[in-house]
């Protein structure tokens, strides 16, 4: 499995054309165009004396109108105007590659590429290269600054990239520069009412849907998009700054992340795109030679929800959640089910009192009194379960980095191969945004250090995903969303029932989400009188299919699962898939996804709805043509309702084939989860 990224199933890389055109006179406009392999998407590039402009068409319709490209370098003129074309290269690449784990085992990477090497004229000319790739499902575009005499170490003060959208579309967006990063509910508005948004940002135009994001974010700042003036259709890149306003501190040679524009006929089709992954690098050969057998998708439980609902506490003392006895209860439950990991939050020293309000005091290699971590890891190992470590940093990155190597070394020694990270706090180290270059670079060091110590990473409150899991296969999953925790913990501001029908179309386009589904007990009002999980039980089950994560939490307490017939679905559902198909859905309304288990012929289906009940018909034509299946259906009970009767569910078994149609009856906030077991 672990060397399979190398295997080339089918492929060719073809250099179509290398033209060393003579330097175009800067007075004229030079025009280039690039089409996707299926010719549906077309990009036009114009090199004008006053600047670089690109536009995008899809199926003959404009998507992006002529939009500026370029970089503003601190203390210098903008790099983007007065450029001449030195050379262009075009090629086509078409190859399948294998994910070591993922939502889709084999991915086809097929694009046409245009590279345009540009240089200024004049006394101290600088050079800039644009790399553009057109896939059938979207465009990628990046800046490269080659090594050169007149531009060495420099600061990017502003990235000039714009997206002048052709239509004022319905836009699903998340305001950036707030206290808790992307941990808010998405907004829907006209494009012309956007302010400044995180990416991915998803737009529904009349004849197509699109999403703008970035791929391969390394040593650069995250991109947000700011509407240029009220009531326009122009989004401009707004890089998350350093405290002094610098955006990116860098040196040539360097390259920016890819700016990506996914385009599809309907929003649901965006979920079947692999553009972000395809624009990331394959793992380095050294990485592939390493023993990666510790990297395993799986389900995990943990001492976690009981803190969020106020039953227990992270702090040492009478309400301490992390104890040897409690950890063993979780391990015992996991050992009897398909749960491979146990998380113990509050396991280490330093959680006293209001830890999120002060400078961090965590010690990352000393267990809290009352928890014998060595004993717990031994107990777990004997039962075939692994302990998952936890590094809550309270956003103190400098403090954490001093201990980081020792912290991962400590886990390696104990045989802990998975860590959940966290950066709770409104700013990193007091004055840095969670999405700036400072944090991007820190998080890269985390992933590298973890890999050296053979640890998988699941990070909360970190930089939003840009597909780097292709390059770093121990980078499993992230939160970067308003997760289940908001339904449990204070402040008493839970998610709305439509939330999970929005995030797969927005945040989900960037990569796996550690949303932490699986709440079975809806009565935790003792400490949280105003909170609730805004869904039915069958909806909770469906989330295991709808929301992709290679490490999927089984978030409720073992007591709430013990003996519960519906737990069988959680036990059965895999976390590693051969293939995935988003079948039907509308943003904020409903979503139906089917996935095939990587290790068996079985398929799974998850369907969820928002606060509205609805009936759907699903053709089962994704099943193998000649095979027969038992559909094990977990659906909402007759009177199920997220508000009044969340626990009502039914289990039904019927025989189906690829020719069958399944009728779904989703109740308010409800869902259906199905296992198709081949007979
Ligand atoms: C925020 C994380 O999202 C949550 O899962 C965790 O329990 C707390 N931080 C404490 O680390
Ligand atoms: Ca969080």
Description:
- This protein is mainly beta.
- It is built from twelve helices and 40 strands.
- The strands form seven sheets. Strands 1, 8, 9, 10, 11, 14, 15, 17, 18, 22 and 23 form an eleven-stranded antiparallel β-sheet that branches. Strands 2-3-4-5-13-20-19-16 form an eight-stranded antiparallel β-sheet, with no helix packed on it. The protein has a seven-stranded parallel β-sheet with strand order 31-30-29-28-25-24-32.
- Helix 7 packs parallel to helix 8.
- The radius of gyration is 25 Å and the shape is globular.
- 52% of the residues are buried.
- It binds 1-deoxynojirimycin (NOJ) and calcium ion.
- The site of calcium ion (CA) has 6 residues, from loops.
Mind summarizing the main beta sheet? 11 strands, antiparallel
Q: What share of the residues does DSSP label as strand, in percent?
A: 35-45%
Number of strands: 40
Radius of gyration based on Cα positions: 25 Å
Indicate the percent of residues in helices: 10-25%
Oligomer: single chain
Counting helices, strands and paired strands, the structural category is: mainly beta
Small molecules bound: 1-deoxynojirimycin, calcium ion
Distance between the termini: 27 Å
Mean pLDDT: 95
Regions with little confidence, pLDDT below 50 for 5+ residues: 1-25
Characterize the overall form.
globular
Number of helices: 12
Question: Helices and strands in order, then pairings?
Answer:
Elements: E1 11-19, E2 30-35, E3 41-48, E4 51-58, E5 61-69, E6 71-73, E7 78-79, E8 83-98, E9 106-120, E10 127-135, E11 138-145, E12 153-159, E13 162-165, E14 170-173, E15 187-190, E16 196-198, E17 201-204, E18 209-215, E19 223-227, E20 234-239, E21 248-251, E22 254-255, E23 258-264, H1 267-270, H2 275-278, H3 285-289, E24 298-303, H4 305-308, H5 324-335, E25 341-344, E26 348-349, E27 363-367, H6 373-382, E28 386-392, H7 397-414, E29 418-422, H8 437-452, E30 456-459, E31 475-478, H9 485-488, H10 537-546, E32 551-553, H11 558-561, H12 567-572, E33 577-586, E34 590-597, E35 603-609, E36 614-619, E37 629-636, E38 649-656, E39 661-666, E40 671-678
Parallel strand pairs: 24-25, 24-32, 25-28, 28-29, 29-30, 30-31
Antiparallel strand pairs: 1-8, 2-3, 3-4, 4-5, 5-13, 6-7, 6-12, 8-9, 9-10, 10-11, 11-22, 11-23, 12-21, 13-20, 14-15, 14-17, 16-19, 17-18, 18-23, 19-20, 26-27, 33-34, 34-35, 35-40, 36-39, 37-38, 37-40
This protein binds 1-deoxynojirimycin and calcium ion (CA).
């Amino acid at each position: 499995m672990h060397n399979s990224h190398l295997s080339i199933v089918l492929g060719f890389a073809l250099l179509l054309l290398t033209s060393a055109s003579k330097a175009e006179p800067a007075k004229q406009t030079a025009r280039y165009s690039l089409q996707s392999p299926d010719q549906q998407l077309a990009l036009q590039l114009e090199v004008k004396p006053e600047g670089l402009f690109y536009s995008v068409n899809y199926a003959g319709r404009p998507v992006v109108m002529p939009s500026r490209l370029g970089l503003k370098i601190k203390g210098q003129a903008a790099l983007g105007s007065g450029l001449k074309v030195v050379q262009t290269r075009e090629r086509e690449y078409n190859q399948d590659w294998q994910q070591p784990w993922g939502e889709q085992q084999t991915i086809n990477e097929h694009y046409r590429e245009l590279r345009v090497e540009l240089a200024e004229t004049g006394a101290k000319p600088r050079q800039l290269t644009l790399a553009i790739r057109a896939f059938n499902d979207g465009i990628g575009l990046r800046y490269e600054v080659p090594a050169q005499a007149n531009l060495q170490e420099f600061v990017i003060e502003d990235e000039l990239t714009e997206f002048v959208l052709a239509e004022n579309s319905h836009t699903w967006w998340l305001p950036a520069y707030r206290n808790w990063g992307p941990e808010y509910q998405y907004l829907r508005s006209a494009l012309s009412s956007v302010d400044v948004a995180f990416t991915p940002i998803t737009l529904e135009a009349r004849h197509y849907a699109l999403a703008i994001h970035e791929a391969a974010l390394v040593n650069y700042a995250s991109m947000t998009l700011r509407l240029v003036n009220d009531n326009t259709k122009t989004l401009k890149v707004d890089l998350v700054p350093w405290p002094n306003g610098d955006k990116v501190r860098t040196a040539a040679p360097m390259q920016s992340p890819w700016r990506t524009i996914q385009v599809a006929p309907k929003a649901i089709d965006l979920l079947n795109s692999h553009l972000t992954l395809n624009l990331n690098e394959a793992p380095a050969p050294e990485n592939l030679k390493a023993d990666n057998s510790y990297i395993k998708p799986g389900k995990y439980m943990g001492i976690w929800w009981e803190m969020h609902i106020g039953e227990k506490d992270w702090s040492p003392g009478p309400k301490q959640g992390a104890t040897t006895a409690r950890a063993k209860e979780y391990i015992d439950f996991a050992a009897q089910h398909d749960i491979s990991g146990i998380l113990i939050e509050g396991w280490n020293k330093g959680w006293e009192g209001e830890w999120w309000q002060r400078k961090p005091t965590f010690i990352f290699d000393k267990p809290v009194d009352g928890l014998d971590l060595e004993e717990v890891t031994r107990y777990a190992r004997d039962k075939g379960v692994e302990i998952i470590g936890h590094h809550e940093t309270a956003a103190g990155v400098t403090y954490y980095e001093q201990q980081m190597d020792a912290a991962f070394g400590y886990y390696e020694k104990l045989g802990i191969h998975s860590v959940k990270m966290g950066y709770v706090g409104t700013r990193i180290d007091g004055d840095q945004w969670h999405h700036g270059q400072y944090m991007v670079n820190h998080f890269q060091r985390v992933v590298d250090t973890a890999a050296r110590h053979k640890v998988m990473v699941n990070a909360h409150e970190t930089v939003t995903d840009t597909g780097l899991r292709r390059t770093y296969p121990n980078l499993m999953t992230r939160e970067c969303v308003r997760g289940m925790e908001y339904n449990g913990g204070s402040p008493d501001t839970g998610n709305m029932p439509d939330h999970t029908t929005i995030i797969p179309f927005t945040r989900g386009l960037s990569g796996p989400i550690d949303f932490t589904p699986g709440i079975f007990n809806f009565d935790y009002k003792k400490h949280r009188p105003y909170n609730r999980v805004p869904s039915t039980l069958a909806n909770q089950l469906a989330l295991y299919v709808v929301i992709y994560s290679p490490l999927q939490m089984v978030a409720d307490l073992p007591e709430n699962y013990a003996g519960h017939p519906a737990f069988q679905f959680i036990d059965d559902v895999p976390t590693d898939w051969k293939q995935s198909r988003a079948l039907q859905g509308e943003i904020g309304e409903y979503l139906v996804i089917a996935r095939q288990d990587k290790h068996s012929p079985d398929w799974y289906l998850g369907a969820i709805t928002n606060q509205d009940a609805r009936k759907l018909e699903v053709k089962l034509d994704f099943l193998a043509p000649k095979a027969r299946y038992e559909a094990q259906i977990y659906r909402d009970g007759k009177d199920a309702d997220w508000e009044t009767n969340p626990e009502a569910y039914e289990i039904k078994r019927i025989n189906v084939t690829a020719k069958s149609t399944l009728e779904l009856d989703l109740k308010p906030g409800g869902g259906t989860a199905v296992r198709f077991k081949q007979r």
